[in-house]
Amino acid sequence: MIDLTDSTGSRYEIVGSYARGRRVGDHVYVSGSGAVDPDGAIQHPGDMHGQAVYTFAKIAATLERLGASMADVVRTRAYFADIALAEEYVRAHGETFAGILPAATGVEARLAVPGMLVEIDVDAIVRPPA
Questions:
Q1: Which residues does residue 73 pair with via DSSP β-bridges, in sequence order?
Q2: Strand 21-24 versus strand 3-6 pairing type
Q3: What does UniProt give as the signal peptide span (predicted)?
Q4: Are 40 and 112 in contact (CB under 8 A)?
Q5: How confident is the model over 104-109, as a mean pLDDT?
Q6: Spatial CA neighbour of 39 closest among 11, 61, 59, 81
Q7: Distances 68 to 52, 76, 96, 97, 109 between C-alpha atoms, Å
Q8: Whether the model pTM is above 0.90
Q9: Which residues, in sequence order, are CB contacts of 97 under 8 Å at separation 6+?
Q10: Please, what is the Cα angle at 15 between 11 and 16, to 5 degrees?
Q11: Cα 25–29–34 angle (5° rounding)?
Q12: Least C-beta-crowded within 10 Å: which of 2, 21, 31, 102?
């Protein structure tokens, strides 16, 4: 059985003892991710769409390192600092997952990093080649 973890070495991963992503068999789980670069700087400040696109790219890279892709995503969860900005997130989600159609949830929440407008986590199932 495949059992892999992915880590970026971020401060939160180290202190919290968690993986950026984990693959167990055909199931892949990507931890909550935001528009924070490796140096801890917020990317696209004040821009929900920009932060969502940046975050989806981070998630795609984690999935790839674990042998999966965005096409394998079956569930997304988004946590919004301000639900009033959700429409811009939905636009980025639609651009990212056109034709894939994962189940999706979005809620308003207090986020851990000031300036982060959205935190996203995903679940994926790696499908055998057709």
A1: 124
A2: antiparallel
A3: none
A4: no
A5: 98
A6: 11
A7: 20, 15, 15, 15, 28
A8: yes
A9: 70, 73, 76
A10: 110
A11: 155
A12: 2
